[in-house]
Amino acid sequence: MQMYLQERIGNPELFTGRKQELDSLLTWVARIKKRISKSTALLSRRKTGKTALLERLYNVTFEKNDGVVPFYFEIRETNQWLGDFAYTFLLTFLVQYVAFNTRKTDYLSSNKPGNFDELKKVVQAEHLDYLLNLIQGFQTAWHEDNGDRMWDIAQEAPAQVAASTGEGILQMIDEFQFLNRYIFWDKDKQRRADNLAGSYLGTAERKHAPLLVAGSWIGWLMNDLTSQLPGRFMPFHLKPIPEDEAIEMIVRYALIDEIPVTEQTIHFIAALSEGNPFYISALFRSRSPRKDLTTADGVLKTLEFETLHKDGDIRGTWLDYINAAFPQINEQYAKDIVLYLSKHRDRFVPRRELKKAMNIDMPDYKLDRKMDALLRCDIIEENRFQYRGVQDNIFDKVFRSRYADDIDTFVTEEAPSEYNALFKKILTQHKSLQGEHNRYKGAFAELVICHHLRYHAFRTPDLFRAMLQNLPEDFAFVDYESVRSYYSPPLHQPEFQLDVLAKASPGDYSLIGEIKHRQEKFLIKEAEAFVEKAQALMRVEQMGKAVLCVFSSGGFYKNTREYLTDHQIAYTDDPRWLEYYFEG
Question: Which residues contact 46 (CB under 8 A, 6 or more apart)?
Fold first, then answer.
């Protein structure tokens, strides 16, 4: 898939998981055409992949070109006059709209109009003249310095264009909570527009241009939505990624970053990260001098660096977040409250216990306001006026390493001890669940074989040809464009997944692989299912020359070998495919 909007994740292949969420959102997008999708709020603590999901949703919707125009806008965390904000908002929308309708993606990058005069020329050249009145109306308000009018025009523009053209328009607004905090009514930026979100009260109900909003501060975002936009947004909770998606993400990072892992440490990293994509990426990108992701001790040392050392990315990111949050709160007792709740994260603590344990001398209504502020900053959790620390081992360590009563003792003794205890618990679970263990064996085998195809096979082709049977005579390993596992496109029916796609340039053979790392032999019905999935992949990707191949560490039944031979499918049980090395 082409990247129309450049994704901040970097290499598009690093986008992993969120299959259920992406499918659900794409179904919601498809319903925009029927005018039955309601504005939605994407809710999750920061660094859980919200922006990556929105950007991928934009690109998939753009690629589908199915009557819904995607519009993505991020509200910057900087003070802005309302007029300047409206200018940027409207220009961004119209540029993305023109790019979608003309299918000329250079309007999003190299040929991007930088102002409305340039945009008018583009609109006329592309025969989209119905946009000219909108642009002219905004320019008139701009010359009059009428910020309120400019915002009215800009904010209503997506819905008005959708209504006049019959198109559906998907409005994705990221960091929506900043709308009430960084926009000012006046050019001197003295009068904060702290109720600006309320301007969407009517617009959010337009079914032809519904909003999908997200933000890094769940509490603040929900406070704005419930107080200024009641009943206008449906919540969409983004949960931690499931274990199988965490495994896939670890394998991709190991392959793309060329950082070795082992069968056991794949499981260990997946468990420690608790389904948080940021933690996985931080471990692989860590600058720890003792980084070694091939041993459990090496993973622990890397995690300790990331959470306890001043140069750790995880620590720095969370401290930036905490330092931004606490000034929003009357700090008296706040840090002590969070520390107490962190120490008792296994249970909810009633308000009266907090007051007694810390000798808090303030009326209940003032304490409630403080607790509400902490909740809005996503630093604590609440259930029926009882509170607990967030259920995130890594965030908890960062916070306590900053505010513990004895920081030196916590960093040098308590935190490492807690991490070791967690490691022993994970190891015990790993050993007791053989079925789960097999999933990591399979993931590790995929990683190693993909690694060989990407870095080694084309350099020593005779060796690797000898490790595969039933190859075409003219087959040659090449420096593949990409090597990865493959999942069917969102909403494709039926869904399918293939272990390996080594994609070659046109004219060369691509490789489509099935991997079984187990004691049992490969069955003929598995071969038939593999062929069916491979044929679906070739149709979706419009592939030309391709070789299907199967690796089975347990070998093959005789009738399976005959089937593979008859259908010109390469196969192997050669254990050298699982020898993991980075040299060469």
Answer: 216, 217, 321, 378
Which tens digit of pLDDT belongs to each residue from 493-512? 888 999 999 999 989 999 99
The whole-angstrom separation of Cα 291 and Cα 309 is 13
* Contact call for residues 7 and 15 (beta carbons, < 8 A): yes
Domains held by the chain: number: 3
Give φ, ψ of 118 to 5 degrees.
-65, -40
Q: Helices 263-273 and 243-256, interaxial angle, to 10°?
A: 120
Q: Which bin fits 67, alpha (ψ -120 to 50), beta or left (φ > 0)?
A: left
pLDDT value at residue 324: 76
* Pairwise CA distance, residues 88 & 570, whole Å: 55
Terminal-residue alpha carbon distance, the chain: 31
Here the CATH number for the domain that contains residue 220 is: 3.40.50.300
What is the rounded average pLDDT of the residues 58-83? 95
Alpha helices per DSSP H over 274-380: 277-285, 296-308, 313-325, 334-343, 351-357, 364-376
Above 50 in pLDDT, residue 584? no
Tell me the two tokens of residue 536: 């679906």
CB distance 570 to 548 below 8 Å: yes
DSSP state of 191: S
**Are 213 and 260 found together in one domain?**
no
Put the strands of the sheet holding 570-572 in their side by side order: 482-487, 497-503, 510-516, 546-552, 570-572
2-24 pLDDT per residue, tens: 888 888 877 777 787 788 899 99
Question: Could you give phi then psi for residue 171, rounded to 5 degrees?
Answer: -100, 110
Helix, coil or strand: residue 47: coil
The 380-383 sheet, strands edge to edge: 349-350, 386-389, 380-383
H-run or E-run covering 555 = none
Tokens of 63: 């690629």
- Per the domain annotation, does 363 fall within a domain? yes
| Domain carrying residue 296 | 242-432
